[in-house]
Amino acid sequence: MQIDNGDTKSKIKIRRSLVTNSDIVLDLFAGNGEMFNSCYSNCKKYTGIEIKKEIVRDNVVTSDNLSYLDNNGIGDATFVDIDAYGSCAKQFIKVLENCKSDSLKIVFTDGGKIDAQRRQSLVKELAHTDNVDPSEKLFCAYYVYDDVLKRFFAKTCAKNMYHITSFYMTHKDRNQVLYGAMTIETTRQIKINQNKSK
């Protein structure tokens, strides 16, 4: 399989711009270790999740991402890498549902401008969540879904008592691949203070 080095460089650049040595990284779709070697090797702690059994490393768990998140949550991760073209929304929901920390950094990969097959899977995927309005699901079927995805992220955060404090997206490979990054912070304390003042 040929790798587009330009895209790989973009993925590395986004991750390096956000990660620090003090981060505890959970890397969903760890792959052959390219992101670990390029971005995460100096982090405080790293756990990679990879479904391919032939990829064996000390810091990688063999598992399906959604199953891993169901069984383990995200632990004490401060940085989550959702390199999940085609299932980004499902995994984002699981990450937020299992996040207990006050803040979290997230990088993600998903489809950008979508073809007919991807449109169908995306609409079906979003149909299983109440985080996107029905009209937006229809919108997904016809347009580049960047704005829909942003609203989906924001609504999912709000539902789990978080808000987005920074957000970035870029496209590669003729707009077929979307790379992004965000930081989120909890709103739990704000809610508690509001309730006390009532």
Explain the layout of strands and helices.
Elements (H helix, E strand, L loop, with lengths): L4 H14 L5 E5 L5 H7 L4 E6 L9 E3 L2 H8 L6 E5 L4 H10 L5 E9 L4 H11 L7 H7 L5 H14 L2 E11 L4 E10 L1 H10 L1
Parallel strand pairs: 1-2, 1-4, 2-3, 4-5
Antiparallel strand pairs: 5-7, 6-7
Helix pairs in contact: 1-2, 3-4, 4-7
Give a brief description.
The protein has 198 residues and is of the alpha/beta class. The chain has helices at 5-18, 34-40, 65-72, 88-97, 116-126, 134-140, 146-159, 188-197; strands at residues 24-28, 45-50, 60-62, 79-83, 103-111, 162-172, 177-186.
Overall description:
This protein has a single domain (5-115, 146-197), classed as Rossmann fold (3-Layer(aba) Sandwich). Helix content is 41%, strand content 25%. It contains eight helices and seven strands. It has helices at 5-18, 34-40, 65-72, 88-97, 116-126, 134-140, 146-159, 188-197, and strands at 24-28, 45-50, 60-62, 79-83, 103-111, 162-172, 177-186. Strands 3-2-1-4-5-7-6 form a seven-stranded mixed sheet, sandwiched between helices.
